Amino acid sequence: MEQADVVIVGAGQAGIALSHCLQKRGVSHVVLERGRIGERWRSSTWRSLRLLTPNWLNALPGSPYRGSDPDGFMSRDAFVETLVGYAHQSQVPVRSHVDVLSCERSGKGFRLRTTAGDWSAKVVVVATGHCDVPSIPFSPHPGEDQPVNIHASQYRSPEELVSGGVLVVGASSSGVQIADELQRSGRRVILSVGKHTRLPRIWRDKDIFYWLHQMGFMSQRLDDLTNPESARRQPSLQLAGRADRSDVDLATLQGIGVELTGRLKGISNQAIGFVDDLEDSITGSDAKQDRLLRQIDRFAGHKSIGLGPAPTRVPATYLKRLSFASGVIGTIIWATGYSRSFSWLKLPAFTADGELAHKDGVTTVAGLYALGFRFLRKRDSNFIGGVGEDAQAIADHVSRYLGQSGLKAA
Q1: Quick check: pTM over 0.85?
Q2: pLDDT attached to residue 143
Q3: What is the third-level CATH fold of 136-334?
Q4: Could you say which of 90, 158, 369, 399 would form a disulfide bridge with 125 (CB–CB 3.0 to 4.6 Å)?
Q5: Cα dihedral angle (177, 181, 183, 187), rounded to 10 degrees?
C-alpha cells in the first residue's frame, strides 16, 4: 500500500491549483487522476469550444496571465496546454490513469482503493469538479426509428453527427453554443428552451465579467444572498468566447434560423412533447437581464440607463409535439447539465439530499475536504479564476489540521 499525507482526487484546475499551494507549504501529497491532466476538458467538450471567461480572469495561484490578449478567449486545447504546463512548472505529483474506486475511514486517516492499488492518506480532497456525471432527465426509448441520443459531453462537431436535423435540449451555455454551431453548418436545429440566464457579452464597452468582477458579484458568498438555494440552481450564463465578442443568445439564434420551443415535457417511442412555456422562459430571463444591467449602470455612475439588447421575440407559433416518424431530426443532444456522483465515498459525509456536507470546503468528516464546487466559498468557486483563492484557503486548513492532529510528516 502506498502512502501520502494528502491525496487529491482529480487533476483539473482545482486539483492542480491545490497541489501548487500544498507544495509551497511543504505538505506531502499526491494527485490521482482517472485520465490525464485536464481530462474533462480534453474528452468531454466539443472541438471548437473556447472559455467563457476572458484570459485576464483565468489566473491560477502564482501564475497571472502574462499574454498579449487579456480580453481574448482561450481555446479548449490552448487551455489544456496551459494547465499541463502549469502542472509541470509546479512539479505537481500526478498519477494519471488511476481511478479511485472507494474511500473509507482507516484509523485516523483514510484508505483509498484504486485501479492501481491501495493508498493510505491522512487527508483526502475531493477535487473532481462541481458535477461530473452527464444528466439526461428523460430516458430515450430505443428503436430503429428513434433519433440518436447523445449528451452534450459527447458532442464533438457537426460532421460527426448522423444526417438530419438536431434537437438540442437546454438553452444555457453549452446548448446555445452547440445550436449556433450546428445551424451555421447547415443543419436544421430546434432548441428546447427552459430556464436560462441571458447577458450581453459586452456592456458599456467592457466585457460583462469586468462588471461582475468590479461589483464584487463573483466573490459573493452564500451568506450574502437572500435566496442561496436559488443562486445555487441558477443556470450557466448564456455566453460564448468568440474573437468578435458577439452574443450567442436566443435572439441571435433566431436570427440565423434556429427554431425555438418550450421545455421538454416527455418522450415516448413515437414522439416528444414540449411544454407551452416558451414565452414565460423568455420574458423572465430578459427581465432579469434588464435588472442586472440597470444595477451595473448605477454602479458605474451612468446618469442615463443604457439601452440593453433587444427583447427576445416570442414566435407566434412553435412546436408542441415532434413526431419521430416525420424524420425531422436525426439526433437529440441533451445539453442538460451534470449530476454529482459520490458513490466511491464510503463516509458519513452527506446531507439528506445527497450533497457533500461542508462549510467553505471543510466537510463534516475530519480530514476530508472539497474543492472546485459551485459556491464552495463564493460564487466563482467553480470558475478557473476563482478556484485559486479557495485552494489557498484549503491548503492553509489542511496544513493546520495535519499539524494540530500530529499527523504531519516530520
Answers
A1: yes
A2: 65
A3: FAD/NAD(P)-binding domain (3.50.50)
A4: 369
A5: -130
